[in-house]
Amino acid sequence: MSGVISIAAGERGVIRVFSLEMGPEQVKFLQEPGALDQVLGTEGLDLQHVEIFAVSDLEEMGLLGYLSEGCGVPMSELFPHRPMLETLQGYVMLLRSRATAGRAMRLTPADAIKMVVTVKEDPTDWSAPPMTTPASSKPHSAGKLPPREARAAARRIGATLFSIVMALIAVVLLVLIF
How far is CA 169 from CA 155, 157, 165, 172, 177, in A? Predict the structure, then answer.
């Protein structure tokens, strides 16, 4: 066993990188429901927040680039772990905090699963200047038509729709007759 890994309740923005020292068949098995829980010694992981892939699939981007560009981990967070991340080969697993659904968990990985590094995603900056709304976008800010013009516009629209419907009826009747 690689030891016990404790995940605190309510943890956010943490990605744990594991090296999987197993064959492709075993890696494929980990994506089955309940299999990952079994090898990590826990239960209730959300597989939508777990990624398992071959490092070679990342090609030129590499694991370092994927963590930075794809997962939003700042390079300053990755730089101390760069040599270790660049030498990883085979299969890896990324376990995000969201996989625990905010619950506290204790992981006891099987011998073939080795914890490599824990990194934090760049937190989202939710601050923004207050929005200002121009007067023209507020409800009922447009000038109101005088009643006579409004009735005239309504009559024009009604007459146009009536003409279109009658023309369609006439075409259908002509097609049916001939």
Answer: 21, 19, 6, 5, 12
